[in-house]
Amino acid sequence: MQYLIERLYETHYESIINLSNDLFGEDYINENDLSEFSQSLVLKDPTQVLGFILFKPFEKGEFQWSNIASIETFFENSNIIIMIKSLAVKKEFQNKGFGTILINELLHSVPVFTGFVLSAWKYGNTMNLLGLIEKFQFIHLYHIEHFWFDESLLKKYKCAICGSPPCVCDAEIFGFVKTIC
What percent of the chain has pLDDT over 70? Predict the structure, then answer.
């Protein structure tokens, strides 16, 4: 299969929003969100968007979770911290290495000692991204109960797991620091 990875452009917005609605819940991602993640990556074949990784780099002091001691300590040698907001691959292309391809592309584009943080959705005993978290050896840093509760009420999105607002999914926060080229 031929595929292409490119930067996020406005021409991708509709496909990404539709994929997000399908995988994460209706209205979880909108055009305003996408404009904040302009450096993100999109995986395509010649006819369609297969997946995406939305991320945003922060200087160490600007990172929104820097006040959590375990996160601050984990990233003490990182001047840049990249927050991975979302990683999604169409259902019919999942478990075929495309999530790995997206993460590898991101890893190869940043300097050594760049930190990465992501939040995995957890509901009961189910957690998304677990295979990729284990594959890339992300380290568990923090648990946040009902992480998307306020945001789901504000944005009125319907979680793919728990339905209409409020979302009661928890977040498991994981970190990784790139240490080799």
Answer: 98
- Eight-class DSSP state of 29: S
Contact 29, 60 (CB under 8 A): no
Per-residue pLDDT at 70: 76
Tokens standing for residue 27: 């209205």
By CB atoms closer than 10 A (0-12, 13-18, 19+), residue 100 is: middle
Count of residues in the chain: 181
| 96-101: average pLDDT | 96
For residue range 16-33, what is the model confidence (pLDDT) as tens digits?
999 999 999 888 999 998
How far, in Å, are 96, 109, 139, 142 from residue 172 at the CA level?
Answer: 24, 25, 10, 6
Q: What is the CA radius of gyration of the chain?
A: 16
CA distance 161 to 123: 7
CB-CB contact of 86 with 54 (8 Å): yes
Whole-angstrom distance, CA of residue 11 vs CA of residue 13: 6
For residue 132, CA distances in Å to 16, 36, 104, 170 come to 20, 24, 11, 18
